[in-house]
Amino acid sequence: MTEDREKTVDGLSEEERDARHAEKMKKKKAARDKILATKTIEKGLVIVHTGKGKGKSTAAFGLVFRAIGNGMKVGIVQFVKGKWATGERVALERFPDQVTITAMGDGFTWETQDRQRDIAAARAAWERAKAMILDEEHDMVLLDELNIVLRYDYLDVAEVAEFLETKPEMKHVIVTGRNAKDELIEIADLVTEMEMVKHPFRSGVKAQKGIEF
Amino acid sequence: MTEDREKTVDGLSEEERDARHAEKMKKKKAARDKILATKTIEKGLVIVHTGKGKGKSTAAFGLVFRAIGNGMKVGIVQFVKGKWATGERVALERFPDQVTITAMGDGFTWETQDRQRDIAAARAAWERAKAMILDEEHDMVLLDELNIVLRYDYLDVAEVAEFLETKPEMKHVIVTGRNAKDELIEIADLVTEMEMVKHPFRSGVKAQKGIEF
């Protein structure tokens, strides 16, 4: 920036680059504004976070806090017990009037190794989830790790998809967990796949406070 | 479940399926426990959230809250001004002793159309980021949308990568934004790519409170 007048590698002076940049950005902004003007519908979304990478529940957790910050009320059903540890709980407990958390009765499948108990717990959690989605109190409902329960066929995906498709119009529902089933993706409004590019486990790093829990 | 004794489609009775499931899950748990036992290193991670999908900043925001819930202190530098709106701010303001937020001085590129001003603002924000990473107060520093600034070459990626590679050992640093540069991915510990599978914009749905902002 001290050599404004000199030609740079691409044969343009800094001033020419600035002018070109301003022109390009102006066009970009116009195009963006035009697109935004066509987006007028407001509706409750069915959001799915899936994929093998990290960030599925964490991004859902971020959405929950964004909603809380906007004064909305949020219901959370944890289909895998014990996955959300101290960090989330402590932060959520600061907003007792806005957040309701329900955890599925029993531990996760490879801890319990009891399929019938897991099926019963999944069914109970789903009944609770439906009630939260139907009530008028909550603006957003997070069904954390529901995909895992669906993957093991502890709940019928057709039943879940049909319920979500006919949910109250303005209610936002977030579903997390790897291996989201096609039937769920089909009825969802927003689906993001978190892909793992690089993971610290590979270098022997353990799960750490503030990152994994 | 009312017909326990009958054979199901896969030729197994419910009881046989339960037994097989218990055995499978037991093996899974043993394998998982064995892997976890080898993960012993604790270190501050360089985490990158990139990709064209949603959830990059939102997942970072979730990590921030998880850290806050664990009593950690977090510094945030926003390289794109005005991207985080009411929702995040209000929720973060409940934790004034644990969170420090700095926003890059000026608006985003296609709003300002002034390249030199953006370069100066990016440089100032990076200096602030370095100070936060070096100080002992913060356990985690979020560099939100740094990738965008690097993509426009407003900052030198080699300089950024070198700094992050030699950062204080226990400090966690999160970088978000699409198009993460290879030099950054190279030195990162954990990289997640958020892929867009389905987006509500396609059906004319506008950005909504509690979801986009």
CATH homology superfamily of the largest domain in chain A = P-loop containing nucleotide triphosphate hydrolases
The tally of beta strands of chain A, per DSSP, is 6
Helix content of chain A: 40-55%
**Name of the top-level CATH class of the largest domain in chain A:** Alpha Beta
Assembly context of the chains: homodimer
Give Rg of chain A in angstroms: 23 Å
Strand order of the largest sheet of chain A: 3-2-4-5-1-6
- Residue runs with pLDDT of under 50 for 5 or more positions of chain A: 1-6
- Summed up, the domain count of chain A is 2
SS element count, helices of chain A = 8
Report the mean per-residue pLDDT of chain A as an integer: 84
Percentage beta strand of chain A: 15-25%
CATH topology of the largest domain in chain A: Rossmann fold
InterPro entries (chains A, B): CblAdoTrfase_CobA (IPR003724), Co_AT_N_dom (IPR025826), P-loop_NTPase (IPR027417)
Region (Disordered) (chains A, B): 1-28
Function (chains A, B): Required for both de novo synthesis of the corrin ring for the assimilation of exogenous corrinoids. Participates in the adenosylation of a variety of incomplete and complete corrinoids.
Pathway (chains A, B): Cofactor biosynthesis; adenosylcobalamin biosynthesis; adenosylcobalamin from cob(II)yrinate a,c-diamide: step 2/7
Give your account of this protein's structure.
Two copies of one chain form a homodimer. With 213 residues, chain A is an alpha/beta fold. Chain A folds into two domains: 40 residues; 158 residues, P-loop containing nucleotide triphosphate hydrolases (Rossmann fold), CATH 3.40.50. The first copy, chain A, has eight helices and six strands, in the order αβαβαβααβααβαβ. Chain A has a six-stranded parallel β-sheet, with helices on both faces. In chain A, β2, α3 and β3 form a beta-alpha-beta unit. The radius of gyration of chain A is 23 Å and the shape is globular. The two termini of chain A are 45 Å apart. The N terminus of chain A is likely disordered. Chains A and B meet through α1, β1, α2, α3 and α4 of A and α1, β1, α2, α3 and α4 of B. β6 of chain A pairs antiparallel with β6 of chain B, so a sheet runs across the interface.
